[in-house]
Amino acid sequence: MAELSGKYLVGVYDDDDTVLHAVPKLRKAGVKIKEVYSPFPIHGLDEALGHPRTRIGIAAFMFGVTGCCCVLTLMIWTMGYDWPMIIGGKDPLSIPNYIPITFEGTVLFTAFGMVITFLISNGLGPGTHFHPRFDVRATDNKFIMAIEMSRNSMTEEEISRALKDSGAEEVNIKQF
Amino acid sequence: MHVTSPVREPLIQGGKTYADVTEDICRHVEATPTKEWKIAFGLSLIVLAYGSVCLAWTWWEGLGVWGLNKTVGWAWDITNFVWWVGIGHAGTLISAILLLFRQKWRTSINRAAEAMTIFAVICAASFILMHMGRPWMAYWALPLPNAFGSLWVNFNSPLVWDVFAISTYFSVSLVFWYIGLIPDLATIRDRATSKVSKFMYGTFAMGWDGSAKTWARYEYISLILAGLSTPLVLSVHTIVSMDFATSVIPGWHTTIFPPYFVAGAIFSGFAMVQNLMLITRVVYKLEDYITLEHIETMNKVITLTGSVVGVAYITEFFIAWYGGVEYEYYAFFNRMTGPYWWAYWAMMTCNVISPQLFWSRKLRRSISFTFFISVIVNIGMWFERFVIIVTSLHRDYVPSSWTMFSPTRYDIGDYIFSFGLFFTLFLLFSKYLPVVNMAEVKAVLRSTSAQLPAKIAGVAKVRQRGAAEPAYNKDQE
């Protein structure tokens, strides 16, 4: 997570269903929600928050194509042109024999490329573990909703009341 | 509140809340090592030390210390290699294939099973290094340019395919496992009381905060990694089987090998998962998470894959006779009735007959019986590889070179080394990392719990005690 600054209202929810239903309710009431933090994935929550669909799959496909091309090129060039070797009477340049390694290379590039993209796009990495968080209970049993005050035109009391009405059991103020 | 109708048996017992899941799984990570753990760890270190001495001597003196001869050039080394790689397959099956099939019972066992995969592949790789004889030349298997000292590798050789398959399998499994660990490491980081554990778990959790956006991406890449790992795991044992199947040796040169090897791999892997989980659930008091339901389901997989293996043995034998190639026929006839008949019948009994006992519901729900059969299956699967490798080789085309293989103490010692390594790594894992995937269990808790508490979030005990409240969370007071 990137560094945070400013003033936030933090709603603490007790139940994943409650928070999932609270999000559209609050958005309808005009509250701009920054993010919801949960101990496990809640299906439909990112759509309810209006997050765009992740494009990491496109990146993964690109990495896969890259891997496939790199490995195939290596084999065709080394076996076919740089130093052809006839071993066991096999044709040195034979694409069917290259299928296993091409497949492995594709998987390797896709997996690593995708995971590195995942880490970078989420700002995950070594040295980020002292970044502040809204509530540490978000990795245990609570569902934390963060609302950035500077992005909202409503007053603190209005948002606080809306959060409580939507099922939040606590509303805290965080200043970074 | 959504309620799922109980079509399936519940997977989580004891009316757990989210806080209970955190507490139950983190308990052993946060506690100081128990006496039992220290004894077990000490024993596995002793085993590892003995094995290391044998291995050091193998490398110092050369492969002549093994019982190999000019007819039997591959024996325990490759047997152990295939055995360990096979064991690894269950972990990927549980974490990847069952994820694609949306099987919720995988959530309680996938973490430990995948750790087992990684350690088993490390053990398998150690036999590859061993059988090279000169492990410092291992980089010759990599595609390095000519000027580096060797020719390019032969990409037409299944042995080179194996290098790529095993290394890809290992690294992709490791990444898949680590990505699954990050949310749980963050949970432990947020509960940590000591500076050292806060720093260590914090570093490896890499700043995970559990935002909805991160979770959406997490789920997406888990799905793609599962989709990649599924053909990957099948390709790995297919390629391992091609090490044999593409060579013109009677008994090896068969097209049935890839599916037969893959089924055998999953069969032996599940047996090893059973062995490990049956002990882990008792030691860490996880009976509510790894229930009889899980054990029974795994036994069903063992019966299924065991039956596939049985059918493969019989098919192979039938084709050896029906194919009319006398060398092929002799290789199989010799397996059954030749000097290694005991190995063949040990394999048949352990792998074909024993899993069929699980058709009885009472037996497959019996913990001690499951443990016993799992050990038997692993012994049987070791014999399968021994039978394939040694009995196919020991009677050559020329009767004057017919011979027998007998292991020396270094063959045995190097095998013991892999056990020491495996259990040392597994014990370290089970102490310092959560053995059950907390985030995934919480995600399926509502739909799989036997009885739901009134408030599913529960009360975090650690915070009730007033401990472990990080400084940056207090500034609101």
Structure description:
- Chain A has helices at residues 16-28, 45-48, 56-82, 95-121, 156-165; strands at 7-13, 35-37, 143-148, 170-175.
- By secondary structure, chain A is an alpha+beta fold.
- Chain A folds into 2 domains: 7-54 and 137-175, Alpha-Beta Plaits; 56-121, no CATH class.
- In chain A, strands 2-3-1-4 form a 4-stranded antiparallel β-sheet.
- Chain A is elongated.
- Chain B has helices spanning 18-30, 35-61, 76-100, 110-132, 158-191, 195-205, 212-245, 257-283, 292-322, 326-337, 341-353, 361-364, 367-393, 409-432, 438-448, 461-464.
- The radius of gyration of chain B is 24 Å and the shape is globular.
- Residues 464-477 of chain B have low confidence and may be disordered.
- The chains are: A alpha+beta (176), B mainly alpha (477).
| CATH topology grouping of the largest domain in chain A | Alpha-Beta Plaits
Question: What is the total domain count of chain B?
Answer: 1
Oligomer: heterodimer
What percentage of residues of chain A falls in helices of 4 or more residues? 40-55%
If you compute it from the alpha carbons, what radius of gyration of chain B comes out, rounded to the nearest whole angstrom?
A: 24 Å
Silhouette of chain B: globular
Stretches with pLDDT under 50, minimum 5 residues of chain B: 464-477
What's the overall geometry of chain A?
elongated
N-to-C terminal Cα separation of chain A, in Å? 14 Å
Estimated structural class of chain A: alpha+beta
Number of helices in the DSSP assignment of chain B: 16
Mean pLDDT of chain B: 89
Q: In total, how many beta strands of chain A?
A: 4
Transmembrane segments (chain A): 56-78, 98-120
Pfam families (chain A): ActD
Keywords (chain A): Membrane, Transmembrane, Transmembrane helix
Protein name (chain A): Membrane protein
Concise synopsis of the structure shown:
The complex is a heterodimer of chains A (176) and B (477). Chain A has helices at residues 16-28, 45-48, 56-82, 95-121, 156-165; strands at 7-13, 35-37, 143-148, 170-175. With 176 residues, chain A is an alpha+beta fold.
